[in-house]
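Consider this record:
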Amino acid sequence: MLDLAGILFSSVMILMVIVRAVQLDRIQPWFQTVKRKDGPAASSKRVWQRQN
């Protein structure tokens, strides 16, 4: 019985975290969109420096 209560409690807590994460994602996204430049990157820059 104690095992079942522990599994049920942890499952409910996981669902609460997922629901709260979805709610907060609508308000404040956890990522930023990358704004790309229209023109081609300079050939003198390396690949990892072109994104800035």
Q: What stands out?
A: Residues 2-27 form the longest helix (26 residues). The chain has a mean pLDDT of 81. The radius of gyration is 22 Å. Residues 24 and 30 are 9 Å apart (CA to CA).
